[in-house]
Amino acid sequence: MSATITPVEDELKAALLELKSANPTLGIPKIHALLLSGHPEWTVSEKRTRKILQSEGLVNNASVGVPGQLYPTSQIIKGFDVAKYTTKVEVKHFSKIKGKGLVAKEQIKEGETIWKEDPFALAPEWNLYDLQMSSHACGYCSTPLTTSPLIVPCTASTSSMPCPVRFCSRLCLSRSGRTHPLLCAARNPAAAPLLYFARRNQWMALHALSQVTARVLLTYNQDEKAFEEDWEIVRSLAQLGMEERAKGGWLNAEPDRAMWKKAHKLYIQAFHEPATETEKKRLAKLLKKPLPQDVADALFDYDAFLRGLGRMSLNLEAHGGLYVLHSHLNHSCAPNVSARHFDQRTALSRITVLARRDIAPGEELTITYVNPELPLEQRRRQLMEWGFGKCMCERCVKEERERKAEGGDGEANVEEKADLEAELKAGLGVM
Ligand SMILES: [Zn+2]
Ligand SMILES: [Zn+2]
Ligand SMILES: [Zn+2]
């Protein structure tokens, strides 16, 4: 009989990480069995395996969740034409877990503009939203309004049914036709309680979902081909359901289930079944064509609504815009691209995506989803809350290695930190 040994923590952790990354969909018992068959000399209890996988954030909630929903899932958007934005990048499908991403098609130089993009939908930061709702920022592009003669008010506003929204130009007024009518206090008063609820609770994902729903519904009524494109975009966004996030213990300070229920009720009243006859008539005027059942279910069922919120939270840019090409970008704690709002006087919601350093053909483009100034553990924890697993980006791996080598805390060097801090501030528009 051969002697058995008890592996030390680091050794066991390394072996489990390797197994889990090679077999991401396997649950704890199967990973444990694989571990023991690969190391027949080891004595390890399943409990110990579970503990390590849990502490590393690598547990699938397979017993309670839906397989495939344990990490954000995304699809390639069928018929999506990247060339409309830029010829410098292409969409690539990496793997089931990693999903899609963008890679460089040619050499990109540091500082180069890679593309510019207007949002698919916009739920701006609340200070901007308040400006929009008090006639001080464009209701479409969110640019603060001056005294320009080009400014136009919402055309539906009347003295008995006032809508405070104004637009910076006729172009913005016309573009707003894709969303505003369903969110307009004059045309669809049933939406007011929903918007008020989102505002009061500072629930950006709910506001964004309202914007997206308004767009999808109106587009369906206006132009069926454009609807097919929009719907494909919405369905292909990376998603992780609220329930899956709750089960993972990942929700932190976000609104709880009672709030989800309340929000769902207001959402249905806003876009599907208003509470009063007058409101019903007004909504019916805007939505003349009945929605196909599958689309109605995918928008209004409670579970679908929660998935929709999860999609928004995962894909919104820091200012609250949902950008189709930008939403393809994966995370790195040392990103090689950055999104800025340069057109502050003309189109505040437009982003310019810039190269932060030279990017070689074939290299993946990445942005940061978390505050890069945070230390290693906190960055990883925040990313795990989103189901992204343990961040194994180059920077995290390097910092972890340095920390082990030094036995110290592996902080990034001062210069690197200052650089990343500047990046974050610029990303959030405070610079
Ligand atoms: Zn505008
Ligand atoms: Zn209006
Ligand atoms: Zn990282």
From TrEMBL:
Record flagged with keyword Iron-sulfur: no
Catalyzed chemical reaction(s): L-lysyl-[histone] + S-adenosyl-L-methionine = N(6)-methyl-L-lysyl-[histone] + S-adenosyl-L-homocysteine + H(+)
SMART domains: SET
Keywords: Methyltransferase, S-adenosyl-L-methionine, Transferase
GO molecular-function terms, A-Z: histone H4K20 methyltransferase activity
Keyword Ligase: no
GO biological process: methylation; negative regulation of gene expression, epigenetic
Annotated TM spans: none
The SET domain, residue ranges: 87-370
UniProt-listed PROSITE patterns: SET
Listed name of the protein: Histone-lysine N-methyltransferase SET5
